[in-house]
Amino acid sequence: MQHLDLKKVKADKTLIGKSVTVCGWVRTSRDSKNVAFAELNDGSELEHTQIVFDKAVFTDGNKLASMLSLGAAIKVVGTVEHGLKDEDVEIRAAQAELLGGSGTDYPLQKKRHTMEYLRTIPHLRVRTNTFNAVFRVRSELSYAIHEYFHRNGYYYVHSPIITGSDCEGAGEVFKVTTVGFDPKIKTEDEYYKNDFFGKPAGLTVSGQLEGEVMATALGRIYTFGPTFRAENSNTPRHAAEFWQVEPEVAFADIDDIIGIATDMIKYITRHVLDNCKKELEFFDMRFENGLIAKLQNVADSEFARVDYTEAIEILKKSGKQFVYPVEWGLDLQTEHERYLTDEYYKKPVFVVNYPRKIKAFYMKQNPDGKTVAATDLLVPGVGEIIGCSERENDYDKLLAEISSRGMKLSDYDNYLDLRKFGSVPHSGFGLGLERMLMYVTGMTNIRDTIEFPRTKDELR
After folding, report:
1. Fewer CB atoms < 10 Å away: N or C end of the chain?
2. Beta bridge partners of 35
3. Are the C-beta atoms of 353 and 371 separated by less than 8 Å?
4. Which residues on adjacent β-strands are paired with residue 90?
5. Nearest CA among 351, 364, 375 for reference residue 397
6. In the 8-state DSSP scheme, what is residue 113?
């Protein structure tokens, strides 16, 4: 179907006075005695385009009414004219065709709907201004991530979605199986013997382990894809399926990877500021006042850095009554992270050198034996968006750590093998796309940054 995007019609002033063909969905409409108006949106930009229907031309009232109904998809042929504002244009319709009707039970009426309600209609919520904007920003953010790594000499690799190991060692893995319930199967060994792979398999929680393999041959790589965690956390920051970008860099220590993470965050933030101006203005006005200034500050200022031990002391001396205890050896909770970023530093902060026992098995042990060369990047309003570490490249230390945690050694044979043949210092991090999207849009629930959110008891 030959037509022009509404974004192009608005941008090209040479089209004033010329006939164009456009398509879209009616977002609002109003009717009067001699003329009717429809606000049309085709997804190419946030703002709608006004279509003017002269009733001297459109004499069939019932047909016109069907084309003015909310949610209706229409095709319009008309002349581009100046709008009320100098920068605006409108289209005076000469012909119009109903492509897809919408009845009076269309769920998105003119009133403002709650986020909770919109989650119940994931097939339609993207037609609202909010989600139209969210998913355009998500697209630009994803593009910027790929662009950053491409420009800096990284290779894009694809790690498997089905895996035989649990990268984090936490056991929060969705099982993949072709064997249904069978009361005749009495043992776990018998069950997996009849399964597709002949052994336990699950959906990946991270592409890191495979990323390390690729980095020890290609030098700099990144993966970018869906990851899955069967974590029973019904919070605004957790989802069972989410997208992660995970670079892995050979010959890099913890300081190197912190520098890379900082550079990447600044780059993708600037990209969104430059390429999503209308969307950010919308979010700044509707969801987080001061959002644009916050993002500009991230792009322009240095990030803070604090040792975990010092962060614990800062929290203890804050005078705040936290719900969760603050003690050395315990992980930081969201309320602790928010105090550090929102109140104490007022900007993103790297917390480094976490206790060894609360971090993953693969992180490099520091000389003190109690901490690891790991860091989390905390940002105001969200908390952690990046988990980062230097990887343990000492075979004996890694073997001892896997054994001490009761993990199955055979699942990590290849991973351990990397430490025997040309092992080098290497580091990497994981950035959750949805959490970064929350940060740059001001959305407060991760469910509102994913097209079709997968959370506990929710599968639409």
Report:
1. N
2. 54
3. yes
4. 50, 81
5. 364
6. P
Amino acid symbol at 136: R
Beta bridge partners of 100: 73
Three-class SS of residue 347?
coil
Tell how many helices (H) and how many strands (E) occur in the chain. Answer: 14, 17
> What does the pLDDT profile of the chain (460 residues) look like in tens digits?
899 999 999 999 999 999 999 999 999 999 999 999 999 999 999 999 999 999 999 999 999 999 999 999 999 999 999 987 767 899 999 999 999 999 889 999 877 789 999 999 999 999 999 999 999 999 999 999 999 999 999 999 999 999 987 766 556 899 999 988 888 888 888 888 889 999 889 999 999 999 999 999 999 999 999 999 998 888 888 899 999 999 999 999 999 999 999 999 999 999 999 999 999 999 999 999 999 999 999 999 899 999 999 999 999 999 999 999 999 999 999 999 999 999 999 999 999 999 999 999 999 999 999 999 999 999 888 888 999 999 999 999 999 999 999 988 888 899 999 999 999 999 999 999 999 999 999 999 999 999 999 998 888 8
CB 282, CB 46: distance < 8 Å: yes
